[in-house]
Amino acid sequence: MSDSNNMTLNLKIWRQSTTKDKGQIVDYILEGVSPDMSFLEMIDMLNEQLVAKNDDPIAFDHDCREGICGMCSMMINGQAHGPEKATTTCQLHMRSFKDGDTIVIEPWRARAFPVLKDLMVDRSAFDRIIEAGGFVNVNTGNAGDANEILIPKEAADLAMDAAACIGCGACVASCKNASAMLFVSAKISQLALLPQGEVEADQRALSMVEKMDELGFGNCTNEAECEASCPKDISISNIARMNRGFLKAAITSKTK
Amino acid sequence: MSTEQQVKKLDGKVPKGDIKTLWENYKFDMKLVNPSNKRKFKVIVVGTGLAGASASATLAELGYEVEAFCISDSPRRAHSIAAQGGINAAKNYPNDGDSVWRLFYDTVKGGDFRAREANVYRLAQVSNNIIDQCAAQGVPFAREYGGTLSNRSFGGAQVSRTFYARGQTGQQLLLGAYSALMKESSKGKVKIHTRSEMVELVMVNGKARGIITRNIVTGEFAKHSADAVLLCTGGYGNVFFLSTNAMNSNGSAAWKAYKKGAYFANPCYTQIHPTCIPVHGENQSKLTLMSESLRNDGRVWAPKKQGDKRPANEIPEDERDYYLERVYPSFGNLAPRDVSSRQAKYRVDEGKGVGKTGVAVYLDFRDAIKRDGYEVIKDRYGNLFDMYQRITDENPYEVPMRIYPAVHYTMGGLWVDYNLMTGAKGCFALGEANFSDHGANRLGASALMQGLADGYFVIPYTLGNYLASEKPNEEKVTVDNPEFEQAMKEAKGRFSKLLSINGKRSVDSFHKALGHIMWENVGMGRTEKGLTSAIKEIQALRKEFWKDVKVTGSDSGINVELEKANRVADFIELGELMARDALARHESCGGHFREEMQTADGEAKRDDEKFCHVAAWEWTGDDGEPIRNIEELSFENVHLATRSYK
Amino acid sequence: MSSSTQSISHNYFLSSVVKKQIMAVTGLLLCGFLLGHLAGNTLIIISPDAFNQYGHALVSNKPLLYTAEAGLIVLFLVHLTMAAKLTVENNTARPEKYYIKQKTGRGSTFASSTMPYTGMIILIFLVTHLINFKYGTVYMTTINGVEMRDLYKTVMEFFAQPIGAAWYAFAMVAMAIHVSHGFWSAFHSIGIFHNRYTPLLRKAGIAYAILVGAGFASLALYGYIQGVQA
After folding, report:
1. Which residue segments constitute the domains of chain A, with CATH numbers given?
2. Which end of chain A is more exposed for a tag (fewer CB within 10 A), N or C?
3. CB contact, 8 Å: C6 with chain B?
4. CA–CA gap between residue B206 and residue B204 (Å, rounded)
5. What is the mean predicted confidence (pLDDT) over B521-529?
6. Interchain contact B36–C (C-beta under 8 A)
7. Percent of chain A with pLDDT over 90
8. Cβ B146–A59 below 8 Å, yes or no?
9. Looking at chain C from residue 153 to 182, which residues have their Cβ under 8 Å from any Cβ of chain A?
10. Is B187 near chain C, with CB under 8 Å?
């Protein structure tokens, strides 16, 4: 908090007024940034100054600011969610930067994630993928006693590892092919690992992958940048599990 | 006085009978909607958190046409996602003496006898169905090696009834409900409107028949009609500016309903959670909660000496005051949230606070690490410790955590009857948005339970009963009814007004000012003097807001400042109502602590003679005084007693 | 799942996952071919006759030869077309590029990020390789009374030129880099992953890459040294 630690930053931020607008990088200088501030609080501070000057504040997605809702989504110096491992933008703190640093801030970029404004993108493609089969077909009231389904702890833990995905899209943003494989495979894996989801595992894998392709995401080249940028440390082993399940399903599928 | 004559005694519409069979019998007595008629009813659900997503999915499964609205880019972002600890259920899997009755009893007592018994009993009853349903959806609950579900004790409960999924239970339950919602969306039974904010409730012939929304991306307003409206919009903790709520959490939808005839119940009941990371500075935007499971192993203390500025590890054992263990020997560090929070405040008020700001106490794991070893503690709390370190840059394995209470949950909300219907006919409120089940204080791991109980297991029945009895679809209301145009005009007018003021102060500066007034006067300790002055200050702030707020940009396209301004305007009014409610409730109960009303040793002192009731406020116009209606509470099953955790 | 899945026919074999699996299987088969090819080539070091006899044996069995050649051509073409298709798709998946893009340093490697480029080098090499050797100068020799092509001479003549040997060695380094990622990646694409064995597989991929890369390149070096001495 002490003023002597405060930093001055050169910010280069992507500004784009609408999806159709061309957009450009705009330079800002921000003074008095405390190392204790979170990255988003730093943007808040800049916005407060922009509003004071009657400028349009920078639009960005954010909500819980505790790393779980998956709303925040910034490409910081060319890295999804910035330089720290397993950290969302909202949990990134300014102590990761130095006085005088230049920070480039861009939105996620992918054909399937059109920019809405400035740093906000439309990630509804992820909802479309889940809609294609990212669920267990069980209506309310159908369930038997929860302990009737026994699940080995190991499988439950692996399923939980995959289920930790927050749907932020950093995997797509960081992938050089803008592939959504990590996101898709995490959901397919979670449900395939559990007996509840196994029943529909084949059809789920087929439908979700098909939807992913249709939405214009790229292909996986097994580079693991997605895993490395994932704020929840989702493993690419989920992609392998999905590949295996998909192959089996594609060969044995009874639909045309 | 004329207002006193207008005070209503509200009827909670609890059916008569033995509490144990009430819900079962009532379900049988309710009218049903014929399966082929269900598709003729349209239901609007506002909010897609636990309550909204579970209600939308379940109603769609039953055959209703559902339209769900959320302000985020996806239903999955709702703030239910941030709940860490767990969800209670009376399964008694650990065989430690739990039962529906005990969960009911604990919840009524924990709520300091200010909840409606019948609702709480129903909640305890359906708690078990929730676990079954969520497990069937593939929610990866923690498991034992034998494959059965794992339970832990949580939030001071003396039985292990909490189910959990690591430290991300809320996330996993929400994703379960979200997946059910997406399942119905894929079948075309639910239409989901994302980035859509409800800005008006539309009443036609005395019934809620639709809403006006504003599209956050385009700025366009739209009319939506339906046969019933469900508000599942969460709590209003962001009145305080700094809270553990998400940045977009707001009270506006509930506030619109309040102005259209719904009552706002017990707005002063606010939960201040004891284990949050303290405020670091002026630019802080929100507070972060750490699961109170930390209190299972961490010991809470403050220095015995005032103004002791030594680093924590240099303060010798006999100069530390483990005050929760001292004051509450039987519950110790696991004393309920309201009690623990207040004790932390006392230490800070006594000048014994720690850290740079002096507004914090310690939560120390030194002894636990010594007893169980580093690995065990890391295994239990590793991700929480990492989170703490990421935010504070301090290593909790080596130095004690600094914690301080923060606003976390609002027990108050829209008044609802046993059917979850608000005072505005046809408008229902579910989850944190209603007031019903937690009384004056919510126990840990109960919020998730209530949100899902309302959505999965209560509203599907009670809504059917309403639709079958009222047959709103026979009235042929469409968006062409003049009431929709009128509501649209009002909403548009409000947004244009906000843009036209063109004053000097930013929206956030008003919000911060409001938060400051609220935290100082309507926070953990409330006095008549503080509350009276708070009401005046808030009224002045409201005037200033409408004179001097500065909202940049235009009404088309994305305008975050405009969105915020609309919500802050409502927060200011809501803040005033909270202060009024706190002032009128001349007793201490649960999260509401009136300093004038305490026992000799500083505990909350209820006044069951005068205040064993729900205060349900009624709006009388922008400049009128709201009316404090009441619903009497009777405790026939859990007898009124002084809550003691000593 | 969505109600439409029953009525629409699906071509799962053109999905992103299967395209990658086709890359993987063809790639692995080509890896197998490389190993066999390398084993045969080491006969150069043993003796010119052994090498020529091996070559002669291969071309004498016409049905086998044509089948093998056809198989190889199909493998290459499929691997190549899929690669081209995937690369084009991947490029269109992000029409607007980043102002700056930085690797995390925790994921992609030099090999993984240069697959299309090392692939192109291998393609060019393949063409020159066929021109230089299979369709290169034909010398004849007689061993044990059987007249056959003196492929040894063609090869050694080529390696004797510094440019020839250097190009060959360079292409082999590119190939080693290509397969160092391609090997384990292929297993991953067809769904073989294990916390214990995958790290071993990655090491095996590197070992394989070094073996074939160094193996082929050392033959070029051997040829060059022989040429200099001659």
Report:
1. 3-117 (3.10.20.30), 123-252 (1.10.1060.10)
2. C
3. no
4. 5
5. 96
6. no
7. 96
8. no
9. 181
10. yes
* ipTM value: 0.97
| Contacts (Cβ under 8 Å, ≥6 apart) of B167 | B84, B85, B291, B293, B383, B384
Average pLDDT score over chain C: 93
Neighboring chain A residues of C98 at a CB cutoff of 8 Å: 75, 78, 106, 109
Which residues in chain B are contacts of A197 at CB distance < 8 A?
138
Is C16's CB within 8 Å of A243's CB? no
The pTM for the full model equals: 0.96
Structural domain contains residue C120? yes
**B337, B272 in Cβ contact below 8 A?**
yes
Catalytic, out of B337, B442, B567, B594? B337
Domain containing C158 equals: 15-89+111-229
- Give A85→chain B minimum CA distance, Å: 11
Dihedral sign, CA of B544, B545, B546, B552?
Answer: positive
**Binding partners of C (≥3 Cβ pairs within 8 A):** A, B
When pLDDT is averaged across residues C195-216 and rounded to a whole number, the result is: 95
Q: Which of residues 177-216 of A touch B (CB under 8 A)?
A: 190-191, 194, 196-197
Chain A residues touching B148 at Cβ < 8 A: 147, 150
H helices within B196-336, ranges in order?
Answer: 252-259, 323-327
From chain C residues 40-79, the ones with a CB under 8 A of any chain A CB are none
Residue C223 lies in a domain: yes
Angstrom distance (rounded) from CA B7 to CA B442: 28
Assess contact for B578 and B522: CB atoms under 8 A: yes
Sign of the dihedral defined by the CA atoms of residues B362, B368, B373, B378, in that order: negative
Three-state secondary structure string covering C26-92: HHHHHHHHHHHHHHHHCHHHHCHHHHHHHHHHHHHCHHHHHHHHHHHHHHHHHHHHHHHHHHHHHHH
The DSSP symbol for B1 reads: -
Q: What angle do CA B144, B149, B152 make, to 5 degrees?
A: 85
For chain C, what is the domain count? 1
Count the Cβ atoms, other than its own, within 10 Å of residue B630: 16
> How close is the nearest chain A Cα to the Cα of C115, in Å?
9
pLDDT in tens, B212-256: 999 999 999 999 999 999 999 999 999 999 999 999 999 999 999
Task: HSE, CB side, 13 Å, CA atoms: give it for residue B427.
Answer: 34
CATH code at B273-408: 3.90.700.10
Q: Are strands B320-321 and B299-303 parallel, antiparallel or unpaired?
A: antiparallel
Question: At how many degrees (to 10) do helices C162-189 and C16-41 cross?
Answer: 140
- Would you list the domain boundaries of chain B? 273-408, 490-626
Chain B residues closer than 8 Å to A150 by CB = 146-148
Indicate whether C127 belongs to any domain.
yes
Across B475-601, the runs of DSSP E, i.e. the strands, are 505-506, 549-550
What does the pLDDT read at residue B24? 97
- The pLDDT tens digits for A20-53 are 999 999 999 999 999 999 999 999 999 999 999 9
- Cβ(B180)–Cβ(B57) below 8 Å: yes
CATH number for the domain that contains residue C121: 1.20.1300.10
Please count the residues of chain C: 230
Query: What is the H or E stretch that residue B43 is in?
Result: strand B42-46
What CA–CA distance (Å, rounded) separates B179 from B185?
Answer: 9
Cα-Cα-Cα-Cα dihedral sign, residues B107, B109, B114, B115: positive
Q: What is the pLDDT of residues B429-484, one digit of tens each?
A: 999 999 989 999 999 899 999 999 999 999 999 999 999 999 998 999 999 999 99
DSSP B253: H
Helix H or strand E encompassing B405: strand B401-410
pLDDT at C6 over 50: no
For residue B337, indicate whether it is catalytic.
yes
